[in-house]
Protein backbone atom coordinates (compact mmCIF):
# COMPACT_ATOMS: atom_id res chain seq x y z
CA UNK A 1 0.00 0.00 0.00
CA UNK A 2 1.30 3.48 -0.86
CA UNK A 3 2.65 5.50 2.12
CA UNK A 4 0.28 8.31 3.17
CA UNK A 5 1.59 11.76 2.18
CA UNK A 6 1.31 13.25 5.66
CA UNK A 7 3.60 16.19 4.82
CA UNK A 8 0.79 17.95 2.92
CA UNK A 9 -1.90 17.66 5.58
CA UNK A 10 -1.12 20.66 7.85
CA UNK A 11 0.81 23.91 7.06
CA UNK A 12 3.36 23.50 9.91
CA UNK A 13 4.65 20.36 8.22
CA UNK A 14 6.27 22.57 5.56
CA UNK A 15 8.47 24.44 8.06
CA UNK A 16 12.18 23.65 7.95
CA UNK A 17 14.17 25.65 10.53
CA UNK A 18 13.74 26.09 14.28
CA UNK A 19 13.38 29.83 13.70
CA UNK A 20 10.50 29.31 11.25
CA UNK A 21 8.85 26.91 13.71
CA UNK A 22 9.15 29.39 16.59
CA UNK A 23 7.69 32.27 14.56
CA UNK A 24 4.82 30.10 13.36
CA UNK A 25 3.82 29.05 16.88
CA UNK A 26 4.29 32.56 18.24
CA UNK A 27 1.63 33.71 15.74
CA UNK A 28 -0.53 30.61 16.18
CA UNK A 29 -0.95 31.53 19.85
CA UNK A 30 -2.58 34.91 19.06
CA UNK A 31 -6.22 35.04 20.24
CA UNK A 32 -5.90 31.44 21.45
CA UNK A 33 -6.01 30.22 17.85
CA UNK A 34 -3.78 27.19 18.62
CA UNK A 35 -6.08 25.88 21.36
CA UNK A 36 -9.17 26.56 19.23
CA UNK A 37 -7.67 24.71 16.26
CA UNK A 38 -6.79 21.75 18.48
CA UNK A 39 -10.39 21.61 19.67
CA UNK A 40 -11.75 21.95 16.12
CA UNK A 41 -9.34 19.26 14.87
CA UNK A 42 -10.25 16.97 17.78
CA UNK A 43 -6.53 16.64 18.56
CA UNK A 44 -6.30 13.67 20.92
CA UNK A 45 -2.49 13.42 21.42
CA UNK A 46 -2.34 14.73 25.03
CA UNK A 47 -5.30 12.62 26.21
CA UNK A 48 -4.03 9.45 24.54
CA UNK A 49 -0.49 9.90 25.90
CA UNK A 50 -1.63 10.53 29.49
CA UNK A 51 -4.05 7.57 29.31
CA UNK A 52 -1.08 5.32 28.50
CA UNK A 53 1.23 7.06 30.99
CA UNK A 54 -1.10 6.62 33.96
CA UNK A 55 -1.16 2.83 33.46
CA UNK A 56 2.59 2.81 34.22
CA UNK A 57 2.86 5.68 36.72
CA UNK A 58 0.73 4.92 39.76
CA UNK A 59 2.50 7.37 42.08
CA UNK A 60 0.88 10.79 41.57
CA UNK A 61 3.71 12.61 43.39
CA UNK A 62 6.40 11.93 40.80
CA UNK A 63 8.23 14.78 39.10
CA UNK A 64 7.39 15.09 35.39
CA UNK A 65 9.00 17.19 32.64
CA UNK A 66 6.64 18.14 29.77
CA UNK A 67 8.98 18.75 26.83
CA UNK A 68 7.38 20.99 24.19
CA UNK A 69 4.42 21.77 26.46
CA UNK A 70 2.95 24.48 24.19
CA UNK A 71 -0.17 25.92 25.83
CA UNK A 72 -0.23 23.16 28.46
CA UNK A 73 -2.66 20.62 27.01
CA UNK A 74 -0.65 17.71 28.48
CA UNK A 75 -0.61 19.45 31.88
CA UNK A 76 -4.40 19.73 31.74
CA UNK A 77 -4.63 15.94 31.26
CA UNK A 78 -2.05 15.23 33.99
CA UNK A 79 -4.07 17.37 36.39
CA UNK A 80 -7.27 15.42 35.62
CA UNK A 81 -5.57 12.25 36.85
CA UNK A 82 -4.18 13.84 40.01
CA UNK A 83 -0.51 14.27 39.14
CA UNK A 84 0.92 16.95 41.41
CA UNK A 85 4.30 18.03 40.10
CA UNK A 86 5.10 18.84 36.50
CA UNK A 87 7.31 21.40 34.80
CA UNK A 88 6.86 22.54 31.21
CA UNK A 89 9.25 23.87 28.58
CA UNK A 90 8.76 25.08 25.02
CA UNK A 91 10.36 27.04 22.19
CA UNK A 92 7.46 29.48 21.79
CA UNK A 93 7.16 32.18 24.45
CA UNK A 94 3.76 33.17 23.07
CA UNK A 95 2.39 29.65 23.71
CA UNK A 96 4.03 29.54 27.17
CA UNK A 97 2.24 32.80 27.99
CA UNK A 98 -1.06 30.97 27.41
CA UNK A 99 -0.35 28.17 29.91
CA UNK A 100 -2.97 28.47 32.69
CA UNK A 101 -1.50 30.05 35.84
CA UNK A 102 -0.44 27.50 38.44
CA UNK A 103 -0.91 24.48 36.18
CA UNK A 104 2.83 23.73 36.01
CA UNK A 105 5.24 24.25 38.90
CA UNK A 106 7.75 25.86 36.57
CA UNK A 107 7.74 26.79 32.88
CA UNK A 108 10.71 27.77 30.76
CA UNK A 109 11.66 28.67 27.23
CA UNK A 110 13.92 26.04 25.67
CA UNK A 111 15.22 24.69 22.36
CA UNK A 112 14.99 20.92 22.68
CA UNK A 113 17.37 20.43 19.76
CA UNK A 114 20.13 21.76 22.04
CA UNK A 115 21.54 20.35 25.26
CA UNK A 116 18.91 20.79 27.99
CA UNK A 117 20.03 22.92 30.92
CA UNK A 118 18.82 20.47 33.57
CA UNK A 119 20.92 18.19 35.79
CA UNK A 120 21.13 14.43 35.23
CA UNK A 121 18.44 12.28 36.90
CA UNK A 122 16.23 15.25 37.80
CA UNK A 123 12.86 13.79 36.76
CA UNK A 124 10.83 10.61 37.23
CA UNK A 125 9.26 11.02 33.81
CA UNK A 126 9.35 12.99 30.57
CA UNK A 127 6.27 13.55 28.43
CA UNK A 128 6.70 14.85 24.88
CA UNK A 129 3.52 15.09 22.84
CA UNK A 130 3.19 16.55 19.34
CA UNK A 131 6.78 17.78 19.33
CA UNK A 132 8.45 15.03 17.30
CA UNK A 133 7.02 16.18 13.99
CA UNK A 134 8.14 17.79 10.70
CA UNK A 135 10.88 20.42 11.23
CA UNK A 136 10.52 20.35 15.03
CA UNK A 137 12.64 18.25 17.40
CA UNK A 138 15.08 15.59 16.17
CA UNK A 139 15.67 12.06 17.55
CA UNK A 140 18.88 12.97 19.43
CA UNK A 141 16.69 14.84 21.97
CA UNK A 142 15.80 11.39 23.29
CA UNK A 143 19.37 11.11 24.65
CA UNK A 144 18.78 14.25 26.67
CA UNK A 145 15.40 12.96 27.91
CA UNK A 146 17.14 9.82 29.16
CA UNK A 147 19.92 11.87 30.78
CA UNK A 148 17.53 14.00 32.84
CA UNK A 149 15.36 11.01 33.82
CA UNK A 150 16.11 8.74 36.79
CA UNK A 151 16.74 5.01 36.59
CA UNK A 152 13.39 3.23 35.99
CA UNK A 153 11.80 6.57 35.06
CA UNK A 154 9.40 6.80 32.12
CA UNK A 155 9.59 8.57 28.78
CA UNK A 156 6.27 8.88 26.98
CA UNK A 157 6.19 10.50 23.54
CA UNK A 158 4.45 10.70 20.18
CA UNK A 159 6.13 10.65 16.78
CA UNK A 160 4.23 11.88 13.75
CA UNK A 161 3.90 8.91 11.40
CA UNK A 162 5.23 11.03 8.49
CA UNK A 163 8.69 11.45 10.05
CA UNK A 164 9.07 8.18 11.96
CA UNK A 165 11.39 6.62 9.39
CA UNK A 166 12.29 9.77 7.47
CA UNK A 167 14.00 11.36 10.52
CA UNK A 168 15.37 8.03 11.84
CA UNK A 169 13.15 7.58 14.91
CA UNK A 170 12.75 3.89 14.04
CA UNK A 171 16.52 3.41 14.21
CA UNK A 172 16.93 5.59 17.32
CA UNK A 173 14.30 3.68 19.31
CA UNK A 174 15.94 0.38 18.33
CA UNK A 175 19.47 1.61 19.16
CA UNK A 176 18.36 2.73 22.62
CA UNK A 177 16.81 -0.71 23.12
CA UNK A 178 19.89 -2.52 21.81
CA UNK A 179 22.33 -0.58 24.00
CA UNK A 180 20.07 -1.12 27.03
CA UNK A 181 19.34 2.56 27.62
CA UNK A 182 15.63 1.78 27.87
CA UNK A 183 13.04 -0.90 27.59
CA UNK A 184 9.99 -0.13 25.46
CA UNK A 185 6.73 -0.91 27.29
CA UNK A 186 4.17 0.48 24.84
CA UNK A 187 4.35 1.20 21.15
CA UNK A 188 1.32 1.60 18.91
CA UNK A 189 -0.23 3.84 16.26
CA UNK A 190 -2.49 6.37 18.00
CA UNK A 191 -5.33 8.51 16.60
CA UNK A 192 -3.52 11.83 17.24
CA UNK A 193 -5.15 14.14 14.64
CA UNK A 194 -7.41 11.57 13.05
CA UNK A 195 -9.74 14.30 11.71
CA UNK A 196 -6.88 15.39 9.42
CA UNK A 197 -5.91 11.79 8.63
CA UNK A 198 -2.66 12.22 10.56
CA UNK A 199 -1.72 9.53 13.10
CA UNK A 200 1.29 9.23 15.40
CA UNK A 201 3.27 6.43 16.98
CA UNK A 202 2.87 6.54 20.74
CA UNK A 203 5.81 5.13 22.68
CA UNK A 204 6.39 4.66 26.41
CA UNK A 205 9.80 3.44 27.53
CA UNK A 206 11.39 2.75 30.92
CA UNK A 207 14.89 4.14 31.42
CA UNK A 208 17.69 1.75 32.38
CA UNK A 209 20.76 3.20 34.13
C1 LIG B 1 2.06 20.43 18.07
S1 LIG B 1 2.70 21.43 19.36
C2 LIG B 1 2.38 20.41 20.78
C3 LIG B 1 2.28 21.19 22.04
C4 LIG B 1 1.72 20.42 23.23
N1 LIG B 1 2.63 19.37 23.67
C5 LIG B 1 0.38 19.84 22.84
O1 LIG B 1 0.28 18.60 22.74
O2 LIG B 1 -0.55 20.64 22.63
C6 LIG B 1 4.44 21.30 19.16
C7 LIG B 1 5.20 22.14 20.17
O3 LIG B 1 6.60 21.93 19.98
C8 LIG B 1 7.25 23.14 20.23
N2 LIG B 1 8.57 23.08 19.60
C9 LIG B 1 8.87 23.01 18.30
N3 LIG B 1 10.20 22.96 18.11
C10 LIG B 1 10.76 23.00 19.35
C11 LIG B 1 12.10 23.01 19.83
N4 LIG B 1 13.15 22.96 19.00
N5 LIG B 1 12.29 23.07 21.17
C12 LIG B 1 11.24 23.15 22.03
N6 LIG B 1 9.95 23.13 21.64
C13 LIG B 1 9.72 23.06 20.31
C14 LIG B 1 6.33 24.19 19.62
O4 LIG B 1 6.59 25.48 20.08
C15 LIG B 1 4.97 23.63 20.02
O5 LIG B 1 4.53 24.15 21.24
Outline the structure in words.
This protein is of the alpha/beta class. The protein has one domain: Vaccinia Virus protein VP39 (Rossmann fold, 3-Layer(aba) Sandwich), CATH 3.40.50.150. The chain has seven helices and seven strands, in the order H-H-H-E-H-E-H-E-E-H-E-H-E-E. The chain has helices at residues 18-28, 33-40, 45-56, 73-80, 93-96, 141-148, 169-178, and strands at residues 63-67, 85-90, 107-109, 123-132, 149-160, 182-193, 198-207. It has a seven-stranded mixed sheet, sandwiched between helices. Helix 3 (45-56) crosses helix 4. It is globular. The mean pLDDT is 96. Bound molecules: S-adenosylmethionine.
Runs in which pLDDT lies below 50 for 5 or more consecutive residues are: none
Q: Report how far apart the termini are.
A: 40 Å
SSE pattern, N- to C-terminal = HHHEHEHEEHEHEE
Beta content: 25-35%
CATH class division: Alpha Beta
What is the CATH topology?
A: Rossmann fold
> How many domains?
1
Task: Write down the overall geometry.
Answer: globular
- Biggest pleated sheet: 7 strands, mixed
Rg (C-alpha, Å): 16 Å
Helix content: 25-40%
Strand tally is 7
Strand order of the largest sheet: 3-2-1-4-5-7-6
Superfamily (CATH H level) name = Vaccinia Virus protein VP39
CATH architecture: 3-Layer(aba) Sandwich
Catalogue the ligands. Answer: S-adenosylmethionine
Amino acid sequence: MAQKDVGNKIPIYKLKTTDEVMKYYDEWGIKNKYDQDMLDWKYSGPKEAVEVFKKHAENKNIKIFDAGCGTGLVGVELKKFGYQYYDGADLSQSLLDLVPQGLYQKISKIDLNQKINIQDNSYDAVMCVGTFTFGHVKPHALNEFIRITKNKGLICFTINEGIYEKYGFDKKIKDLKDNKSWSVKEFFKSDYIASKDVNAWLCLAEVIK
